[in-house]
Specification:
The structure is a single chain. By secondary structure, the protein is α/β, with parallel strands linked by helices. The strands form 2 sheets. A 9-stranded mixed β-sheet has the order 4-3-5-2-1-6-10-11-9, with helices on both faces. Strands 7-8 form a two-stranded antiparallel sheet. α1 packs across α3 and α5 packs parallel to α7.
């Protein structure tokens, strides 16, 4: 008998860098296909899934702003990068038979639907995977904040953040061999210890809506499904 899901509807946030694989730029098709398989495996159990994908593998608005591009323009350019990643993920998901919708906070009806909250929720209820693109549609907000906002709007049971490591550590485990992983944290722990899980506005929004944040490794096979059934290694952030 398959393990029972702990959640019914979730929002999965993936960084744009996760789509690069071993490349230094762009989209690794094989990595995108593997992540799509991870999503499909959990979806097959009945999980309703929304996705938010960053754009850092293509364009980083903040870095471009520091290099001289006007900040709001740079942020809009970064939002467009997230649309490209969303379309790539949609292609990978549909290639394995999943019904998907890309919904953009910046209207571009030639390639995707405009974001409408009630329509997005209905798509998810009907078993479609919804990929939320273009952040919040506003400059000065990260895709972490966009993910938190969509999780709250969709009435999600949890916000998942898929990273390269298996949870939240007290310091960078790639640089420090003595880094300690947390099994559980409070929202305030994340903020006061400056653990860099998500930006403060995203964490605060999840705290205000009592939606847990779950940090896990999207790089490990079937970890997403394991976490959704309560078996996987992760860090859970709650009140």
């Amino acid at each position: 008998m398959s393990a029972k899901l702990k959640y019914k509807r979730v929002l999965l946030k993936i960084s744009g860098e996760a789509l690069m694989g071993s490349q230094s730029f762009g989209i690794d098709v094989d990595v995108t296909a593997r992540i799509a398989e991870e999503v499909a495996s959990a979806h097959a159990k009945g999980l309703e899934i929304g996705l938010v994908i960053g754009g850092g593998n293509i364009f980083r608005g903040l870095a471009a702003s520091e290099a001289g591009i006007e900040r709001t323009t740079a942020d809009y350019m970064g939002m467009l990068a997230t649309v490209m990643n969303a379309l790539a993920m949609q292609s990978a998901l549909e290639h394995i038979g999943l019904d998907t919708r890309v919904m953009s906070a910046i209207p571009m009806t030639t390639v995707c639907e405009p974001y409408i909250r009630r329509r997005a929720s209905r798509h998810m209820a009907r078993g479609r995977i919804v990929i939320f693109a273009a952040g919040t549609g506003n400059p000065f907000f990260t895709t972490d904040t966009a993910a938190a906002l969509r999780a709250a709007e969709m009435g999600c049971d949890a916000l998942l953040k898929g990273t390269k490591v298996d949870g939240v550590y007290d310091k960078d485990p790639a640089k420090h061999g003595d880094a300690v992983r947390y099994d559980q944290l409070s929202y305030m722990d994340v903020i006061t210890k400056d653990l860099q899980v998500m930006d403060t506005s995203a964490v605060t929004l999840m705290r205000d809506n009592a939606i847990p944040i779950i940090v896990f490794s999207i790089a490990e096979k079937r970890r997403f499904e394991d976490v959704m059934t309560g078996k996987g290694i992760c860090t859970i952030i709650t009140s």
